[in-house]
Every structure is written in structure tokens, then in C-alpha cells.
Amino acid sequence: MIVLDASTIILLGKINLLETFGLTFSGRVLISKKVRDEISIKETEENPLIVKLIEDEKIRVSKVNPVRNSSPAIAGLETERGIKSR
Known about the structure:
50% helix, single chain, mainly alpha, disordered C terminus
């Protein structure tokens, strides 16, 4: 299983690797509802492909819990963005 953030999924789409990645990766590809919403805000060239991969369940939208006690960088993001670890 791999969890993608908005930047990663958008950039993979821009360089035409998102579909290949979705078709060749044998594990589950997840994005959070927040990432799906962020991607949908602006119409871009890669949006139709992302929507199709979600509809085809190549990318699944799921509740994603932040990782606890992972690293100082993550802890900084949690504080900066208001994410609370359990």
C-alpha cells in the first residue's frame, strides 16, 4: 500500500506516469478525501485521468491517519497544519 499526497499525484499526472504507476503497482494506492478535494479545486489537464483512476478503483479514496512519532519533520507539519496525532 502507498499513500500519495496531492503534489505527488499531480506531478505523476503531469509527466504522464500516473496511469503507468496505477496499472503496474501491485499494491493499493490511496489518497485521502482531503487530497481528492484539493485535486478537484482547479481544472487541470491531469484531472480527468485522476478522476478515471479513482472511478476504476486504481486509486482509492480513504481515511488516512497521520503517522505518530515518525520524525521531527512530520511533527513540524503536524503542528504547522493543525494535524493531531493519536
